[in-house]
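Hi L.,

You mentioned the student needs an example of a multi-chain input paired with its predicted structure. This one should do, with 687 residues in total across all chains.
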Amino acid sequence: MNSILFLILRRLRRPLILIIVSFAIAIFGLTMMPGVDDKGQIWHMTVFQALYVISYTATTIGFGEVPYPFSQSQRLWTTFSIYFTVIPWFYAIGKIITLLQDTALKQAIAAERFGRAVNLLQEPFYILCSYGQSATLLAKALDHMNMRVVVIERSQSRLDELELTDSKQVIPHFCGDAMLPDNLIRAGILNPHCRGLVTLTDNDEVNLAVAIAVKLLNPKLPVVARAERDDIAANMASFGTDHIINPYTLFGDQLAMRVHALGTYLLHEWLTGITGETLLPPEPPPRGRWIVCGYGRFGKSVVANLEREHITTTIIEAKPELTGCNHCIVGSGTEAKTLKEAGIESAVGIVAGTDNDINNLSIVMTAFELNPNIFLVIRKNNSHNAALFKQFDAHITMQPTYIIAHECLAHLISPLLAQFLTLVRDQTNDWANQLISQLVSKVGEEVPETWAVTIDQQTAPAVTALMHQHITITLQTLSRQPTDREQALDIVPLMLLRNQQPMLVPAFDTPLMMGDQILFCGRPEAKTAVTTLLEHDKTLTYIVDGSETPNSLVFRWLMAKKV
Amino acid sequence: MNLEKVIFGFFIVLAMTLNFGFFLGDIDNPAHHHIYELYAAIVVSLIATVLKFGDRTHVGAILLSTSLAADLQLITAAILWASLSGKYDEQALMVYIVSLSGGALMANIISVVLLIAETISQRR
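Structure written out for the whole complex:
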């Protein structure tokens, strides 16, 4: 605010001095002019009377001639004063209005307001360094989980969209370049409440610059960055960017996971979903020969991952010389001729993976006509075409923005969740299916909430207090209804981390130790219940032995006497 | 020589000298204190204040605050004069006005001292 005030004052120096000088001369002159009072005697205005007259004359209000009708010489001076004072007055007003519309000043005010809004956040928040399609989804999901979000975006039109969406909480936003360290600091990277920063712009260089700046200014802050080029990704990894997202490889990876282990894929989708959504189990993609249309970065990743699953592929590419494709069928895949050439009748699946939505739709529609049993995978680039894709209803609609948002969520909800999901990949499909059925029976088919709990003095004072009395607290204890200890809460402990050793889906009778980190999954109501158990001694004691501890000192003393 | 510095210094010194001129004389004798001198002191003090706007240095901030203090006291004196003259004992009123202008004089002296100190510390 300081700098803005000084900016205004400095620019107003000239008009203000002009006003002071012109008023001073006009007032002085008016007191010098002889007037005639009601008794016919000569009188002179006092300085105050002159100030009064000039003030209403200069501002064009004009009350008239007070206290007595003016003499000729007073009128002469007033005429001069009108032209002499009104012009500086309007000049000053014009200057103030121009100043208020000045873009530099507006920008300074917006930056100042943004910084203040971020400083006022007294709860954990995340910084998004763009507000594109995936960031929009991410912001919505985080907002849904009652987490605060702060946005820096270069384009004002996207921020206008942000202003129009209805979110649960206010999202402070700022139109500016995230590459400037000042803007990052304003967004709160040094704020102790900041939990992490996500940079998902479609420009690798910007993401790199942001990641470097954050890692230099606040090395402890988790950074999730998007990188399409391998050299940029390697560069980011070299200075410790916590997670690097490549949307193209991510898609191929997910498709492979779907072919390879549907259960694992489902678990992944489910735990990183937006709370409250329902997920239907999708069909597993068939094994056999696949056709991949488009051999760009996206297609390459798909082919590489499918081949790892020992699935043969036929590639259709319009510009083979550009994409470095050795043996492929030349064409766009939108005509029946090319598809027939690729052997559409005998293929089990087709991936329409070009970067043009209309071409992709055309490919799958033609393919479906030629072979109605074929498994259709379509890439959706632009979320504005959602209605078209919904109408067509392919087996798998892959939207890079959606995949990116899910991947970010996995890392933002808790580092434990990301670790859990990595470990899940090494488990068998049956293991994943079993866990899913356990989860569905406990928490229902809606996307559950996932949260991490650390057993220490700060977050679990009740548990630590009881542990000090040598009372064993197990996971069982933490999964009871605070109102009725006979009833179990609908939660599933997904992972327990003790001394950096992860334990997947720990049994309920596992005794807890100080410093344990537990990843829970359950309904939002259960989350509140668990928090109550962790924090309130009285409730936890009730769960442990069913006794009600009295609240007041007197009754505690009486109780002790009784025993 | 810098014309801006000349104007700046001129107004700050003039604000103090005019203020001093008004203050000089018997404190309760209206004949020793002319209203136009107070008027000129206020106008020059206001101009000096505006000239000090926008200087972000530490000395600049103190200069501005001394000017604001002087303005406040001089304007208070003028308001007293405008509202109470003719209704109040003239000698007692003059004591109030002149003592207020004496306070403003202190602020103006500090302002000039700071200006001199800054000028001396300039190495160029």
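You could point out the following to them. The radius of gyration of chain A is 35 Å. Residues 142 and 148 of chain A are 7 Å apart (CA to CA).

Best wishes,
N.
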